[in-house]
Structure formats: C-alpha cells, structure tokens
C-alpha cells in the first residue's frame, strides 16, 4: 500500500479525447489524482460535479485534477457531455493504474464479493511524491457541529489540504 512520502507510480492513460496523459508530462505540477468506481453512477457523478464546480479553486492553486476509472474513453465522453464536466478523466481499462495505486480491491455489495475500484484520492507534489492520501472516500458526509448537521464535501477537504501543503 502506498503511503505519504512514497514516489507516486508513473502512469500513462488516455483521457476522454483519446489523448495520452502521462505523469512525466506533469512533472513540476501539483496533481490531484482521484479514483472512482464508474461513470454515470450517483456517487461518482456527485464527485465529478463537485470537482467541476470547484475547478477554478484548484486552478488558483496551480493543480491538475485527474479522475480515473476503468471505464473506456467513449463512456468518459458521455459522462462529461451529460454533466458538463470540466475535469480530465483518464481511462484505465487495463486497471494498471488502479493496481499500481492499490485501489483495485476486493469489495462487497449485497453479500456478493467482486473486484472493483475503492474510491480514493491522492495529492502528488511537484517532486512526484505522494503528499496526501484519502482511501474509502465519502464524497459527502454529514457531521454534527454544535448540534447542527453540516455537509462536508470531499473536494473541499482536498482543496484545504492542498492549500496547507503549498503553504509549508
């Protein structure tokens, strides 16, 4: 399992426009690399829309957002078109990236076991090292603060951590 401080596994994968995106071409940049199970499903749609809605905040932090799933590029294009997404989605049909990052795991749903992507997010620093990791991500979670229920967005947690890392 990867941990903070490890060199991030290198990758090359096609984006939604069938253009190959490689980690070597992003050297020197902050990367938010998030893995999600499947295009056009409720939790994954919420996550992609949240990253799209907050995209400008990440631009201000000079960070590249890359979503990764095992869906093909055609399905990524449909997903982007349907929800007007502005983020880049990488297609990992071979599941190599998912395996390299340790997110291709045994999952359970309704008593059945199967292999799938565990929703996870990594921040990679400009030196190519993992600077932060979230595994088993809840896209939105409820938290009680002084008796009041508030919603915490994962995208905000990622943005705040990125700001913190850049200020150190």
Task: List the topology elements.
Blueprint: E1 12-14, E2 20-22, E3 30-35, H1 42-53, H2 55-60, E4 63-69, H3 73-83, E5 88-91, H4 96-100, E6 104-109, E7 112-117, E8 120-124, E9 130-135, E10 140-145, E11 148-153, H5 154-167
Parallel strand pairs: 3-4, 4-5
Antiparallel strand pairs: 1-2, 3-8, 6-7, 8-9, 10-11
Can you walk through the features of this model?
The protein is an alpha+beta fold and 168 residues long. Helices cover 29% and strands 35% of the residues. It has helices spanning 42-53, 55-60, 73-83, 96-100, 154-167, and strands at 12-14, 20-22, 30-35, 63-69, 88-91, 104-109, 112-117, 120-124, 130-135, 140-145, 148-153. The strands form 4 sheets. A 5-stranded mixed β-sheet has the order 5-4-3-8-9. Strands 1-2 form a two-stranded antiparallel ribbon. A hairpin with a 5-residue loop joins strand 1 (12-14) and strand 2 (20-22). The longest helix is centred in the last third of the chain and has 14 residues, at 154-167.
Q: What is the structure about, briefly put?
A:
The chain has 168 residues and is of the alpha+beta class. The protein is 29% helix and 35% strand.
Q: Could you say which structural class the secondary elements and strand pairing correspond to? A: alpha+beta
Order of helices and strands: EEEHHEHEHEEEEEEH
Strand ordering within the main sheet: 5-4-3-8-9
User: How many strands, which pairing sense, and closed or not: the largest β-sheet?
Assistant: 5 strands, mixed
Total of DSSP H or I helical runs spanning 4+ residues: 5
The average pLDDT value, as a whole number, equals 94
Number of strands: 11
Please report which band the strand proportion falls in: under 5%, 5-15%, 15-25%, 25-35%, 35-45% or over 45%.
Answer: 25-35%
Taking the alpha carbons of the first and last residues, their distance comes to 25 Å
* Rg (C-alpha, Å): 16 Å
Fraction in helix = 25-40%
What gross morphology would you assign? globular
Which stretches are low in confidence, meaning pLDDT under 50 for 5 or more residues running? none
């Amino acid at each position: 399992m990867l941990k903070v401080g490890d060199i991030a596994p290198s990758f090359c994968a096609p984006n939604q426009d069938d253009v190959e995106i490689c980690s070597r071409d992003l050297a020197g940049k902050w990367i938010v690399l998030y893995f999600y199970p499947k295009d056009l499903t409720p939790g994954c749609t919420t996550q992609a829309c949240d990253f799209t809605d907050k995209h400008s905040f990440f631009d201000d932090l000079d960070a590249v957002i890359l979503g990764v799933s095992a869906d093909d590029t055609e399905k990524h294009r449909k997903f982007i078109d349907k929800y007007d997404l502005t983020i880049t989605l990488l297609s990992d049909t071979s599941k190599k990236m998912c395996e390299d990052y340790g997110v291709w795991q045994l999952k359970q749903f309704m008593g059945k076991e199967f292999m799938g992507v565990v929703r996870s997010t990594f921040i990679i620093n400009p030196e190519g090292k993992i600077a932060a990791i979230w595994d088993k991500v809840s896209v939105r979670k409820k938290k009680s603060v002084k008796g009041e229920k508030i919603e915490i967005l994962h995208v905000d947690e990622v943005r705040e951590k990125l700001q913190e890392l850049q200020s150190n």
